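Please decode residue identities from the backbone states below.
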């Protein structure tokens, strides 16, 4: 069994969650002993596992079908998570949905990160088998490290006692960036750092103003940072606060959990079934609730749930994901499907 993993536009979206998903897939397949190639011109593969949605992705999927290859589409994106992102995204969203449905409809099997995103796809009218498989997490990379944590604090000139709240995400309204800054304005005693970036001309003017100048001094936008600094930030901050309104999973949440960090999320449907308020994280519904929870969490006035959160990440480790992908690949190669084979991951 040989898999062609395809990812279009690495230079454009490689820093996004989808970009990290491809890296995780490569490692997951290697851990499961599955041969793969990244060469779109290859012909000696059995299954095309495609992650992206451009014209090159469409043409490669068509080519694979004509060659009699099996096609799996990884449905990372939905109409819902396209909205409130780039300039004009809300106006384009219905067309994006139509395009996604057309692409996904070409596949023999779909994979999507969560039961929530699987439900959205079913509501689009897609009827192929759909497996809900997490994008996974590299546990070793995010394990707390004193050296990395010290490097993070030194880089941002943070004292040992300075309370720090971080978020990681693109500069999208749906990620909750407006709320993040509004809350920071009312909590000047804490430092708020938002890691991540997108080309500034691609986002609405009000978001550009927030990032460039319309934010208080206690809010930092250092841009995209990887390696020891971001890994040290995950475990070395006092809280990971992710106020996103819509996700298909949220790889950054898994990264925070793997870092054994306290996690505060918005209570939205995507977390149903794997994140639970006051069990492995804390959740809020509005800015007032977030402010109260932030204050209590950074001052350690609530039970510490980091161990439970870490166990959640362990269940989504790259090795676990490799086995789940292998199960789906085997089922796809045995068309017509034996639903019992992959019932574990498609329920």
């Amino acid at each position: 069994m040989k898999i062609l993993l395809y990812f279009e536009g690495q230079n454009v979206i490689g820093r996004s969650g989808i970009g990290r998903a491809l890296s995780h897939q490569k490692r997951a397949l290697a851990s499961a002993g599955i041969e793969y190639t990244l060469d779109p011109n290859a012909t000696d593969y059995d299954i095309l596992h495609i992650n992206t949605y451009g014209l090159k992705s469409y043409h490669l999927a068509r080519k694979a079908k004509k060659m009699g290859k099996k096609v799996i589409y990884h449905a990372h994106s939905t109409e819902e998570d396209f909205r409130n992102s780039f300039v004009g995204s809300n106006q384009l969203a219905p067309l994006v949905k139509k395009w996604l449905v057309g692409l996904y409809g070409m596949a023999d099997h779909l994979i999507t990160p969560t039961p929530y995103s699987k439900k959205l796809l079913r509501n689009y009218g897609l009827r192929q088998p759909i497996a809900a498989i997490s994008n996974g997490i590299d546990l070793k990379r995010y394990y707390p490290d004193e050296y990395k944590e010290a490097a993070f604090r030194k880089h941002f000139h943070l004292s040992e006692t300075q309370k720090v709240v971080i978020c990681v995400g693109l500069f999208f309204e749906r990620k909750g960036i407006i709320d993040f800054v509004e809350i920071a304005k009312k909590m000047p005693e804490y430092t708020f750092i938002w890691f991540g970036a997108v080309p500034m001309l691609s986002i609405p003017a009000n978001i550009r103003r927030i990032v460039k100048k319309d934010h208080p001094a206690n809010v930092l936008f250092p841009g995209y940072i990887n390696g020891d600094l971001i890994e040290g930030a995950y475990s070395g901050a006092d809280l990971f606060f992710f106020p996103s309104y819509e996700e298909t999973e949220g790889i950054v949440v898994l990264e925070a959990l793997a870092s054994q960090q306290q996690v505060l999320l918005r209570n939205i449907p995507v977390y149903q079934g794997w994140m639970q308020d006051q069990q492995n994280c804390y959740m809020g519904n509005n800015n007032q609730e977030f402010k109260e929870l932030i204050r209590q969490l950074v001052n350690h006035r609530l039970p510490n749930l980091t161990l439970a959160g870490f166990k959640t990440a362990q269940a989504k480790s790259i090795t676990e994901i490799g086995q789940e992908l292998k199960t789906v690949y085997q089922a796809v190669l045995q068309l017509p499907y034996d639903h019992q084979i992959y019932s574990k991951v498609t329920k």
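Observation: Residues 89-104 form the longest helix (16 residues).
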